[in-house]
Amino acid sequence: MRATYLYGAGDVRVADVPDPIIKEPTDAIVRVVRACVCGSDLHPYHSMAASADGSSMGHEFVGVVEETGGAVTTVKPGDFVIAPFAWSDGTCEFCREGLHTSCRYGGFWNSPGVGGGQAEAVRVPLADGTLVAVPVEETSPLIPSLLTLSDVYGTGYHAAVKANVSPRTTVTVIGDGAVGLLAVLSAKQLGAERIILMGRHTVRTDLGRAYGATDVVAERGPEGIAKVRELTGGDGTHVVIEAVGHMPAYEQAVGVVRPGGVISRVGVPQYEAAPVGFASLFGPNITLTGGPAPARAYIETLLPAVLDGTVNPGKVFDREVALDDVAAGYRAMDEREALKVLVRP
Amino acid sequence: MRATYLYGAGDVRVADVPDPIIKEPTDAIVRVVRACVCGSDLHPYHSMAASADGSSMGHEFVGVVEETGGAVTTVKPGDFVIAPFAWSDGTCEFCREGLHTSCRYGGFWNSPGVGGGQAEAVRVPLADGTLVAVPVEETSPLIPSLLTLSDVYGTGYHAAVKANVSPRTTVTVIGDGAVGLLAVLSAKQLGAERIILMGRHTVRTDLGRAYGATDVVAERGPEGIAKVRELTGGDGTHVVIEAVGHMPAYEQAVGVVRPGGVISRVGVPQYEAAPVGFASLFGPNITLTGGPAPARAYIETLLPAVLDGTVNPGKVFDREVALDDVAAGYRAMDEREALKVLVRP
User: Which ipTM score applies to this complex?
Assistant: First the structure.
């Protein structure tokens, strides 16, 4: 089959690799209907050292079950399924707590023996715990929205849930990428009435307004901080969702969070150390939370409003490429010509 | 009057200074019955640059109201009062939320125009919001326990509250100082059934066991982390309370916290940057919380069990010095001969 590999910074190619096969009785093979490129894929796309073997890519996909191992009971060949960005058994202590990304038996796509989603097919371990069957045809116009449940929508929702967003909390969202925009939608769904979106791309922030942002701040750095403070009577907001992952976004978050408030990070941090001392987090009793979203935990919660059309998170996709053109998709996202790119095998 | 000043690292002296006077109608003058030395006083005691003027010291005291300004209504001369370690108006938005340390009109002892508690008397701004009158005599054996409500008990309780300690959470407390021990007591009061205390001083950890610690780990660093992991089936605890403030304690906290868990800091951080990236907090979805405790917020909650003798947080005091001997008190705490030192003007 054809599958996407990254061979070094900027070097994305589609390779011919063996078709995935059932290795464990708990496996399923899923034929990919749509995958996509994630903002976090751009991190290695910028920095990966050259590698002859390359790394398989893609951790978001929806598709149709082709084959299941003998122990799989919840999905069957022909089912349309959503695959969250981590696989998990669904029954361990962490999964029962809703922290599927820390599943005792789980893991992440593109690890040894498990390929990536930007491919024609994927071997899915622990299929019963991982896959969610949805009664739609693979030609449904809902496919893009369903695909967001494999990562970006669940990630935005995780940020809002970890920050305890409610009607009583004001919210700033830093970042107008797909996760930031879906964090706006999630904060709105959890009842937030004041949502300030920090972003500079009007097309994106317009979508953010449609999702529920009440204010848009295009400025960055000290000007952006001053603007948010001005909008909030000097105090900042109870919640700041950091959906970027770079240090300036972290500093922005510290600058606009209200005393006693919460910074919830879902942008994968591209730094290890950051300010957390008296002057930043400790003195004003700021809480820092977040992490990789257990997307699996939120699928059942978020699915009904997607299926009935109440929300349309799939609007974050503004381009589609064929699998063989995936490199153009990476380039378009990297150059910010595209917000988020669908990949069609 | 006599008041304690720090003139540089290791240089604590008692000076003659003018008696405090009412400056604002919301002020009260409190004659100090007992003050004490805080672990956080040792930070400047170690590091302060030499200063001819010195800094007044002490932020924990109980005493008797001597005089009140014309606008004060909740306390009157003769009342025995507890003074929390920050003064606050009690009515602003932050105070109503229980974050008195961020009061819009409040501040901290030893700031311009406001002295410290290790003195014969203190001018208390915003007396109505700040002071809590308690119906006891100044000779009561409850005085040491009541004094812990001005900081260390409220601080230990804040750590546990911010971490959402409950019967469902396992807890590690790092540090066997007064705050750590009272964090153990607080975690127990909030229902924790498994409380691991990390500390090396047997007299202190024995008091920790009396307060509710189920396990004591004397090892530090990687050995200490391994021991806590061994005690918890490899996972670490849901909550880690960091009651020290130095980087090795932070690293220890990261080492023993369970995925999805909370690190709650109440030791004043002696660092500004710390690891918070994928390998430390982000990957396992760890929450970092805490800060200076709004001790005022907890006094009414914690007072009844102190007054009826259900708890005895005053056991953390194991030495008493006269005000003129306060330097010996600092030295005893610094050399870890004393756990916490009462100061008697």
Answer: 0.96
